[in-house]
C-alpha cells in the first residue's frame, strides 16, 4: 500500500492506483477518481463489498504536507453507477468523488492500513509499536495497543487474524 501501490477489488473487477484512480481491470479505463479533501492519501484498500478506505495526511495549498496532530481516514461506499450520460454525466465525469464519511485519527497512526476480509474492522499501524483497531461502518476506534516490535506491514488473514510484519519477525493478533 501507499503511494504508487496497486489494490485490486475483492471480485477482481476494479483496481485502485496512485492518485486515487479507480480503473477497470480488464480495460484499464478510469471509472472514477476519489479525493480525500485537504489531504494526500498515503494508504488505501477495498472493502469486501467494493467500497474504499483511505488514510492520509493533511496538505496545504501547493501540495506540501501540513504539520498537524491528526491524519484523515475516509470511507467511500461502492458507486452504484457511473455518472451517466447527458449534461449531468458530462459535468460530473472528471469530478473526484469525496468520501461519505471522514474522521480524524491521532497523528501517530499514519499507516499502513489493513481491512478485514469480512469488512467489519480495520487496523492502522502507528509510530513505533502503536496499533489501532477500528470499526469500518462507523469509522471509530475500538482499541489501541502496543505491538511487540515496530510494525512495518500488516494484513488480515481470510479467517480475520491480524498479521503484522515487524523488525523482529511475524506476529499474529486474534
Structure description:
With 174 residues, the protein is mainly β. It contains 1 helix and 16 strands. Strands 5, 6, 7, 8 and 9 form a 5-stranded antiparallel β-sheet that branches. A 4-stranded antiparallel β-sheet has the order 1-2-3-4, with no helix packed on it. A hairpin with a 5-residue loop joins strand 14 and strand 15. The longest helix has 7 residues. The mean pLDDT is 87.
Helix content: under 10%
Shape descriptor: globular
> Which range does the strand content fall in?
over 45%
Helices and strands, in order, run as EEEEEEEEHEEEEEEEE
- Describe the biggest sheet? 5 strands, antiparallel
Question: How large is the count of helical segments?
Answer: 1
Cα radius of gyration in angstroms: 16 Å
The averaged pLDDT comes out at 87
Task: Count the E strands.
Answer: 16
Distance between the termini: 22 Å
Structural class, judged by helices and strands? mainly beta
Q: Which stretches of 5+ consecutive residues score pLDDT under 50?
A: none
Name the assembly state. Answer: single chain
Short structural description:
With 174 residues, the chain is mainly β. The protein has one helix spanning 86-92, and strands at 7-8, 14-17, 21-24, 30-33, 39-46, 52-60, 64-65, 70-76, 101-106, 113-115, 121-125, 130-135, 140-146, 151-156, 162-166, 169-173.
